[in-house]
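User: Can you help me understand a structure? I only have the sequence.
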Amino acid sequence: MNAQNLEATKALASVTFQSNNFHCSKFGRKSICIICVVVFLLVPVPVYFNTLTGHIVSLIGLQLKHSNVSSFPEFRLDNASGIYHLSHVCIEPHEKPIVRYDGRKGQFYNETQMLVVYRTENQTSVPRVVGINASPWSLWGIRFLNKSLPESRMKNLQNTAFFVNPFAPGNLFHFFHHFFVSLFAAVYNSDRLHPGINNHILYRSPENPALNFDSRKTYEGFLRTLHSDRILDAFYNLPENTCFQHAVFAANRGSFGFGVVVDHILRYYNLSRNRGNESNEYFLTITKRRRRRMLNIEDVATAAKDVGFKRIRIVDFETLSLVEQLKMMTTTKVLVGIQGAGLQWAVFMPRGGLVIEIAWPQKHHPFFYKNIVLNSGLKWKGVIVQDVRVNWTSYAFTARKGVQVPEAEKAKILSTVPINLNDNIWKWADIMIKKHEVLHALATAYNDTN
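Assistant: Let's start by predicting it. Here is the structure, written out as tokens:
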């Protein structure tokens, strides 16, 4: 992306960024200008603006300022590592705060500090950035200085920090798929997955406490398994001139599958997916939700009892600690739940278990968790429901900013497939499940797991 198009995209997104210090007009030779252009092509900053949602997506996530325009940083692509790695990185103040805007959360914030990378005397080139992609929604402003780290800072140099910007960290599906697996891979590939190593985890932007999906405390227990006692907020809130020997940017999950990550988490908490095949150890667990509810959830439990299940429990996961939720899932042989992020807990079930996903495909994803469940060594059954009761008041308040939906429009929405995110009324709906809708799936689950 050239500078002109990049600036146009930035203006469209109403985001203030640092400007690059490269200007070909400053050089007397045409060949130097060509080098400038080549470097920009090799080190793009792809920022895409989604006009439908107002979201900014950064796929590479590194914006660079250089103090010495005659020295260019070397960049190397490494498809295996899945990380960007920098050495001798300090957090230093901006000349004046930079206003950032996170379109996902509708949030402006003042970034008071930036990341600065120093050369060290034994380096023959500036530090290399390793990796192929950064996490979405990450745009890091990094300044490279062609000089050694000041001696005064070497004395208090901290070891390793992992710089991240999670997408919807309060939602288990997004936390796990779009954040934690990649971060786990970065810690592992950096050889920092050891007890007592005290990794630092630093965020790109501040938390918005008004948004449940942005709660960074909800699944903090997962981050503890990466041997970190320093899970901090936005990086720029650290004390001025804090320096790290190593800075790592999670890029992608590389070759890591969910199974490796799940087993690591369970080992940390002395749990396991392999508890033997004794049927009296396991439960059929029905998830109880506070939104998108099964209004007659007790009828589902009765139907499960009718087909032969003896150990049945109805669980509101939001009332449990993370460790309690993990223990619950390692003793769940059959999980019954409405389509939603809570079904992500299924990856912690014993192998050979079965998930019954209840959905309303006419107005949402056609059974979202099937592949995730099957790839986790589990079995899957889908149940379609028809008695869906939309909470139009909640829908109007949340999706329409308080504007009520006319009766004629309600009928149209109910009778057609979704045309946009606001039309996805499944998020604001409860269900009444009929016994005949779920009975076959329960009978299959009983036969397959007993």
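Now, to help you interpret it: The longest strand covers residues 83-102. Residues 136 and 381 are 32 Å apart (CA to CA). Let me know which part you'd like to focus on.
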